[in-house]
Amino acid sequence: MAFEAEERPDRPIAKFESMLKTDDVYFFDAEDFEDIIHHYLNNGKMSLAKKAIKIGLTQHPSTIELKLLEVEVHVFENNLELAESMLDSLQTIDSNNEEIYIQRANIFSKKDDHNKAIQLLEKALTLSDDSIDIHSLLGMEHLFMDNFEEAKKHFIQCVLFDEHDYASLYNIIYCFDFLEDFDGAIVFLNDYLEKNPYCEVAWHQLGKQYIEKGMYKEAIAAFDFAIISDDSFVGAYFEKGKILEKLKRYNEAIENYEITIEIEDPSAFAYLRIGKCHEKIGNTELARLFYYKTVHEDPLLDKGWLAITSFYIKQEDYVKAKEYITKAINIEEENLFYWEKSALIHEALGLVEDAEVAYQKMVDLGDCELKTWLNWSTLVIKKGDLHSAIQILQQALEFYPNNADILYKIAGSHMALNQTIKTKEYLVKALSVNTKKVATFKLDFPQFKNNTWINNIIIEYSNSSK
């Protein structure tokens, strides 16, 4: 038995959900079904949206708006062929319905044909009296294609229509940032704030633009206005704290970071920044305390482990540094920065084999920095394993084929092995790249500083190159 809507005075959504729990069938008008379906779609309740569409089309089988919502669900679920077929049928009935073009644009967007999607959305724009959602979609399509100027224009239209559309406001600033047009962003935000002087989001974004320009005084003022607009706006306190750190006003920075902890649950980032500030002003015990809090709050934050490890390295307490970098590696073994610290610590402790393991791991993780190869080979040369040092340096040559530092080290290693032919080959190559680094070569291999044969090669090369 069907009931008229007037007999069920509850709101449509509550009434619809009540109906689903009973065997009763309530009647809704088509607009009620649209509201119900939009509610479920906006809240991610796809199964309920589909039920509402099914019942809605049973009661109103010829309503195009409900059929278009069914198309929207099919597009969302990637049933693109079915959605296109339904749109073909609907277009024969109502060829000037902007929603048909919007859904076709969504289909082409899913197929990564953003140019076609834009064409269809621009057609929809000519047919629609309510164009803001279309401008938002056009902005996103242009973003997909890195057309930041065009994207910005469409998002600006959205903000002109609804000054509280912060998603579009963020997208506008995103476009300015990618265009590196910080001056343009500052002008836009100041104009916006003339009309919306208590918008904490805009003040916050303005402050970040001033940071990019190195205008720290203006940035602090902007973040202060953001805080005046909303004294619980954590982001403004964080950004202000970071600038105060740059200006070496560490105590003020600490105050701002501490406010964020009072407003929200403590964050590892706040603890980390407070620890850094205390370390800068010489409060070593407080710095250590806040570094401990950092890694306790978020054991996966690599900057926390690196900070506490670096703290002990600066204190030359390599035993403690080793303890913490080992804990960090146990949590995240594939972190390159951890292994870099591990190599330094183990080398300082004279644990050569452990340091070698760390260097090998760094290379395995993709570290191809010149200093890594040079530090690793120096360690191995000191150990006396010259054959391994040459192998390491040969690998380095694949990345830096004409690097004098590498070539001199290979030459010195071959000389230490009494391999004169190879020594001369690499020494001449090194000299051809940079003769000034001979002094460094003699420091690295002091046993050859006064070697007559080596000096003769250097003299011979110098004469021949004149």
From TrEMBL:
Which UniProt keywords are present, listed alphabetically? Repeat, TPR repeat
The identity of this protein, by name, is Tetratricopeptide repeat protein
- Asked whether the UniProt record includes Repeat among its keywords, one would answer yes
Q: Which organism is it from?
A: Cellulophaga geojensis KL-A
Q: Where are the TPR repeats?
A: 98-131, 200-233, 234-267, 302-335, 370-403
Question: Which Pfam families is this protein grouped with?
Answer: TPR_16, TPR_8
Keyword Repeat assigned: yes
The superkingdom of the source organism is Bacteria
* InterPro entries linked: TPR-like_helical_dom_sf (IPR011990), TPR_rpt (IPR019734), Ycf3 (IPR050498)
**Gene3D superfamilies in UniProt:** Tetratricopeptide repeat domain
